[in-house]
Amino acid sequence: MLSYLVFMGTIGGIYALLALSLNLIWGSVGMVNLGLAGFFAVGAYASAILTTAGKAPIPLGLLLALVVGVAAGLLATFSTKRLRDDYLAIVTLGFAEVVRLVAQNEIWLTRGADGISGIPGPFKSDLGPNFNAFFLALMALIVGVVYWLLRRIDRSPYGRALRAIREDAQVAAVAGKNVMRFKTEAFAVSAAIAGLAGALYGHFTSYIAPDLFQPLITVYIFLAVTAGGTGRPSGGLVGAFLVVFFLESMRFAVEVLPDVSPLRLAALREILIGLALLLVLRLRPQGLLPETIRPAPRGQT
């Protein structure tokens, strides 16, 4: 039971990073990223390939995941530079599907549908059965650092500029803000966090495959951010762990139903997740921890 709770906590930490990533770009800037699973996969494959085929140390793999995430985020924003914001959602959704198809078909690089196994974990051979507990502590440290950084951004003049762009980009531009630069920087940071989450996922599970990066992951994270509170980093954290708890509780709940095939159980579980998202949007659209707009200190813009 303890091992299962440690596993849930670690997955919750990975979901928390994804929720913080989405909350930055969607909650603070108002840009809808429907391709979160793609950036998650890019980071996972970048670190996995470097540390398995390249035999590089894990810190270099994590660093590469950040760099590749930034590059993917810049590519997504530059490709929609002359389009309306609505098209960013379409482009990111297509980007995620392209990443999954490349991972599935470029066997020479990603081993295709077989996936990449044997991904090293930090001190895994030395720690033995204590590896999961160590990784949970590592995840708590990384999530804490990312949360602290995003809180600093949220309370800074830079964060207020992001929220001004979210509310009305034209007014922000008239006020002298370079809207495109702010959006590009925010998307790059968001994609980097998602890439880091993917790399950590690969080093924790020791295995990644294209089927693990389905668009449903993006739905889970949108549910987490919506339930926790859009525009508030702490809301993303709370929502991520609530979603992990909900997913696991639904797994046990549907298994007690009599005379239902495993395929129908899986479908029922997804139906319940969709209903949960609809209920949150209907009953608590502002989330459990609604965003509070702090007044700007005098002399700052």
What's the layout of helices and strands?
Blueprint: H1 2-28, H2 36-52, H3 58-78, H4 86-105, H5 107-110, E1 116-117, H6 124-127, H7 131-155, H8 157-167, H9 169-174, H10 179-205, E2 207-208, H11 216-228, H12 233-255, H13 262-283
Antiparallel strand pairs: 1-2
Helix pairs in contact: 1-7, 1-10, 1-11, 1-12, 2-3, 2-4, 2-10, 3-10, 7-8, 11-12, 11-13, 12-13
How many structural domains in the coordinates?
1
Chain-averaged pLDDT: 88
Total number of helices:
13
| Gross morphology | globular
What does the largest sheet look like? 2 strands, antiparallel
Helix content: over 70%
Radius of gyration: 19 Å
Order of helices and strands: HHHHHEHHHHHEHHH
Distance between the termini: 51 Å
- Name the poorly predicted regions: none
Fraction of residues in β-strands: under 5%
Number of extended strands:
2
* Spatial strand arrangement across the major sheet: 1-2
Assembly type of the shown chains? Answer: single chain
Structural class: mainly alpha
Question: Could you explain how this protein is built, in words?
Answer:
With 301 residues, this protein is mostly helical. It has one domain. It is 73% helix and 1% strand. It has a two-stranded antiparallel sheet with strand order 1-2.
